[in-house]
Amino acid sequence: MKHSTARYLAACVAVAILAGTTPAYAHSQLESATPVIDAQLKVSPRSIALTFNEPVGVAAKGVQLLDAAGKQIAASGVAKAATVKFSTPKLKPGRYVVRWRVTSADGHIIVASYAFAVATATKQGKAFSFELNDAEGKVTSSIDANLPGLRTLGIELAGLEGTLELKHPSFGAPMLWPMKVSGSKLIATGMLPASGTWTVTARVRTGQFDERVLTGKLRIVV
Asked: pLDDT tens digits, residue range 173-182?
């Protein structure tokens, strides 16, 4: 299993645990992806492939490749056992999103996405702070730059573990980033493929039986 896909799987499991449900082992899990999650490729990939831990059901266009504007480039509705694979045209330099909607053997629908880049470096930008909120109050958060690309986001909150769920209106499916402890805060790294307003949900386990679910908005510029 690739490291980046393992990170994504860890985030999926963390969401289930933090939500107080049975861990994600009860549903289909992404085991590997091509291109790998958050990949920064030098050349265009020839295909997209997602492999789950069990056979899945895929509706027409259930797995899609989108550009940074949310426009569909290629799609597949065919799953062979636990793998969905389809060819792609030659991709121009830019950032792309793989979005999927599959049905587990137990009937549970899994909707998620991840990003990768082709011949596009992550540019430096201006770091800034923003706020996440829940019923307990506001928590200061920060991101290392205000531009698209591979970014690190921090939350000024002591916790044991957590996950970030990031949603953009152009993609219609969340991206999940696992958070790790770094001193007195939690940090997470992943690729933001597009500018615009992202909705951020942080699920943080602050104690053995305690959690906080914080939400807020993150504005990324062109």
From this structure: 999 999 999 9
Could you tell me how far CA 142 lies from the centroid of its own chain? 18
The label of the residue with tokens 């690739």 reads: 2
What is the pTM (predicted TM-score) of this model? 0.88
Strand, coil or helix: 23: coil
Selected from 3.40.50.150, 2.60.40.1220, 1.10.8.640, 3.30.540.10, the CATH number assigned to the domain covering 3-118 reads 2.60.40.1220
Q: In degrees, to the nearest 5, what angle opens at C-alpha 194 toward C-alphas 190 and 195?
A: 115
Q: Output the CATH code of domain 128-220.
A: 2.60.40.1930
Q: What is the pLDDT of residues 35-58, one digit of tens each?
A: 999 999 999 999 999 999 999 999
Q: How confident is the model at residue 106, as a pLDDT?
A: 86
C-alpha radius of gyration, the chain, whole number: 17
Q: How do the domains of the chain map onto residue ranges?
A: 3-118, 128-220
Pairing of strands 109-118, 40-41: parallel
Mean pLDDT of 25-43: 89
Cα distance between residue 156 and residue 118, in whole Å = 33
Name the residue type at position 149. Answer: G
